[in-house]
Amino acid sequence: MKRLRALALACGLACSAAPAAAQECGTIVIPTGIGISGGADITSFNPLLANSLYNTAAAGMMFQGLIWVSGRTLQIDWSRSLASSITTPDNGQTYDVKLRPWHWSDGVPVTTEDVAYTFSLIKSLGPSYAGYGAGGMPDIVQSFTVISPSEFRVVLKHPVNPQWYIFNGLALLLPLPKHAWSKYTLDEIFQNQSQPGFFQVVDGPLRPERLDIGLDLIMTPNPNWEGPPLHFSRLVWKFVEGDGAALQQVESGDLDLANAPMDLWKAVQNLPGIRLINLPPGLSFHEIQLNLRNTDVAFFRDVRVRQAMADAIDQQEMIALIDHGQGEEIRSPVPPNPPTYLPPAMRAGQYPVEYDPQKALALLQEAGFTRGPDGIMQKNGVRLSFTYLSLSGGAVSAQTTVMLQSYLAKIGIEVKVRQIEFNQLVALLNNPHSDWEAAGLGETVGVYPSGEELFGTGAFANAGGYSDPKMDQLIAESTDKPGLQGLYDYATYASEQQPVIFMPVGSTSILARARVQGVENFVDPAYNYYPDALYCTESAAP
């Protein structure tokens, strides 16, 4: 239930060193979405076009980020960043960036010309850019100047909150190999986004060797990787559908790691030769995306209907029954942990919406709805009924759907269900003219969780077409004004508005075969992957 369109996954330049007894693992086989969510195919390697977590994970292994922000501290770790320093001499409008010495896999130095090339591609792609609008990019930039091979300057059209722009804007300017790509047209770059041969010049730890859609992606180490050593010769991302299939494959040895299926939680506690590793919650939330453009479900445009849906859902019960207590209630676009950016009232557990079915009924009645003969709310002959797109193949998705139907039925809302594969859902959501009504999925948020890419009018990730002048104003204030009050006001209003219906998110646990170690450091709450963290012990190496 995850997608991501703006937050680039980064691989650390300096992860924790493996123990002295670490051995080479040979081939490590893992499913896509490991440590995050259920799996789906990888279909693109281009970080500027990656519109899902699975694509971004692959791209993040291939291309180094300009900055690396720890998902545990939400702070920049300069030892793991391609930038060596970022300064703003005028406190928010001008940004001077210096690069550390680094090389592409073919030995060519990474320079600021590569960063400038990335920026030119972003501008040329426009709304097709997967991070369009995040960090104000690219429209917020007045000028981009290469000062030297190791230093560049970005001047914005107006001063902004420096922390916001560094985390959400500058972070998007990861260098791409100008010397290898500039001979291609933009259309050729787009057409080659899933071709491994196009992506042999990388500066990250891995590069793609072979992609078989529906089967797997094989990645091999960058022979000129300048970061910490890797302890495997191949990393295979296997495309596995269904939690049960992944469990069977990790038990049989076909997979080295797999996400623990929550519907089999008791069964996976003591599997022979397999460790269960619990991860902290990620910077994400689940949601019911609503198509506010579709006139057949125009009732979603009434904030009282959206609030009623949120008030009808017992998130505590969902976490207890589906996630076995391993999860968090989510009622705003700012995840509660770490509470760095959570408004003070929300830290105290006070949200504009909460589980209250009686309040939900009152809101629907206030909006003019009454129960029809079949118990479904109606108004002017229109029933409160919609079709919900539920991702196929996962027990958690199926359980969530059943409970959602039950909660909403109690307040007179009918939910009809249609199952759909992940990549089909992404295609629907990316088409502003498609007639879907509602969909269950997940969103990751940036390490500075402002809303310009999620709920701003016309934003790339705003698939439902939500538009509200006050929301646009609050988003602008959260990005332009120094301090956190603007972000607090945005989060509070978004919780009140429910532009999507915010849903609880479960923690992820990983099943790991005994031979592979370092798994607890392989992925962090910001969904940064560290391939160099994986190693095998002498007794477990093949």
Automatic annotation (TrEMBL):
Pfam families found in the cross-reference section: SBP_bac_5
Annotated localization: Periplasm
Signal sequence region: 1-22
CDD domains named in the record: PBP2_thermophilic_Hb8_like
Gene3D superfamilies, sorted: Dipeptide-binding Protein, Domain 3, Periplasmic binding protein-like II
GO cellular component, one term: ATP-binding cassette (ABC) transporter complex
GO biological process: peptide transport
SUPFAM superfamilies given in the database record: Periplasmic binding protein-like II
Keyword Signal: yes
Domain Solute-binding protein family: 81-426
Keywords for the protein's UniProt record, in alphabetical order: Signal
GO molecular function: peptide transmembrane transporter activity
Family statement drawn from the similarity comment of this UniProt entry: Belongs to the bacterial solute-binding protein 5 family.
Protein name per the record: Peptide/nickel transport system substrate-binding protein
The organism of origin for this protein: Acidocella aromatica
